[in-house]
Recover the amino acids of this structure.
């Protein structure tokens, strides 16, 4: 998914599409679930479409589980995991995975930390052993810690030089307040700079334990054998204490605001954020349909209105993706500075229209079909199916995922109008504008 340097807002929109595509697929193969005595969860699924297997480790860590004075610790630890152990030197695990014909990657989200290994299925046992060593015997060299800190700080600085990223982050921070979702998943530079090797070692001992661990497996393997093998590995972890969220709830603003910032950037950008649902809210499927109507393709309402009809923006899109707590729907646009106010008004007016009039039958049917087709495309790969199992279980969305297609089929124009009125038609929003100096 990160094959190009995309704005964070665009990446979030892509993640939204990826999550939608993984919802509610029909399970035609064997799936096994094991919970070990120390609380670790293993989900293994058979997929004989190709001779590969995907293994994804989900850790209950991330910005959602960080206090403000440690913001960035989970992501920094992520970048250091699997680099070195007591018996394997720097980079040896990754080189060994690649030597098996596979690859490794990792990702830091607000709700979890994720590690992925994809290898030929014949090499599953070897890959599990390599991941076992990396999980249970991680070693942290102070020099590596400082180098990774600098790399992350440099990447944050680079990101905030891009207008879309800067406006998106400003919007989230102003809209979410003190909630961890308003902070960078990568960390807050001030807190990140203070982290020490001892802080990382302590977090590793506290968070990489059975009660915070979930592993999803999909591929050309016997799911019973694969699940038992990985469960045996995870049984070597301490039970530990399950990580608790750093915030109990989301508090949305009660009045609309516009925040403007000038920076050393080349293009003006505006991001408009609105309240949205979380994984436990019944409206989240309806919001998916609504967002497709807003953003998907050249005929989407946002593109048609603001770009084609009014000529206010150079580019425009929208994003929302399901997280554990309620998350905002946002609209981001690159545009001439003189069009900022008009584009804000046009966006809010479009949202109001959705709350006042039902969408047409053809528009609704098209949006539903796009979501259903996305589901089929997603689960064609072992990695996509593994992501499905891991993601939804990691954020507490098993029910959401299992009911998705049925709930999608029942979404009506009236439900979309009601959701639009509740989330988008209240007149409460946050507009963040970043302008060139």
């Amino acid at each position: 998914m990160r094959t190009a340097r995309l704005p964070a807002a665009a990446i979030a929109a892509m993640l939204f599409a990826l999550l939608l595509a993984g919802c509610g697929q029909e399970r035609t193969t064997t799936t096994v679930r094991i919970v070990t005595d120390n609380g670790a969860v293993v989900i293994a699924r058979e997929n004989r479409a190709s001779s590969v297997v995907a293994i994804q480790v989900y850790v209950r860590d991330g910005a959602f589980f960080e206090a403000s004075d440690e913001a960035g610790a989970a992501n920094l630890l992520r970048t250091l995991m699997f680099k070195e152990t007591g018996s394997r030197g720097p980079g040896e695990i990754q080189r060994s995975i690649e030597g098996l014909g596979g690859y490794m990657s990792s990702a830091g989200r607000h709700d979890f930390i994720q590690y992925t290994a994809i290898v030929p299925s014949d090499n599953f046992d070897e890959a599990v052993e390599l991941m076992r060593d990396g999980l249970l015997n991680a070693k942290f060299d102070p020099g590596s810690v400082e180098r990774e800190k600098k790399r992350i700080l440099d990447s944050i600085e680079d990101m905030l030089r891009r207008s879309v990223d800067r406006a998106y982050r400003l919007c989230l921070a102003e809209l979410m307040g003190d909630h961890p979702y308003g902070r960078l998943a990568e960390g807050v530079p001030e807190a990140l700079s203070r982290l020490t090797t001892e802080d990382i070692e302590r977090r590793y001992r506290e968070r990489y334990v059975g009660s915070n661990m979930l592993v999803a497996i999909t591929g050309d393997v016997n799911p019973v054998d694969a699940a038992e093998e990985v469960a045996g590995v995870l049984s070597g972890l301490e039970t530990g204490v399950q990580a608790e969220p750093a915030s109990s709830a989301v508090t949305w603003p009660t009045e609309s605001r516009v925040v403007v910032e000038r920076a050393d950037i080349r293009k003006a950008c505006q991001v408009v954020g609105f309240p949205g649902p979380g994984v436990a809210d019944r409206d989240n499927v309806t919001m998916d349909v609504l967002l497709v109507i807003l953003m998907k393709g050249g005929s989407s309402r946002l593109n048609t209105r603001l770009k084609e009809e009014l000529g206010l923006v150079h580019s425009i899109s929208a994003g929302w993706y399901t997280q554990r707590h309620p998350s905002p729907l946002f609209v981001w646009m690159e545009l001439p500075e003189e069009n900022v106010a008009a584009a804000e008004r046009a966006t809010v007016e479009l949202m109001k229209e959705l709350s006042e009039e039902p969408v047409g039958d053809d528009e609704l049917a098209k949006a539903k079909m796009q979501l259903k087709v996305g589901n089929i495309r997603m689960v064609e790969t072992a990695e996509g199916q593994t992501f499905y199992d891991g993601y939804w279980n990691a954020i507490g969305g098993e029910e959401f995922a299992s009911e998705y297609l049925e709930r999608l089929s029942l979404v009506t124009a009236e439900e979309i109008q009601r959701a639009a009125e509740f989330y988008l038609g209240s007149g409460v929003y946050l507009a963040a504008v970043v302008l060139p100096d």
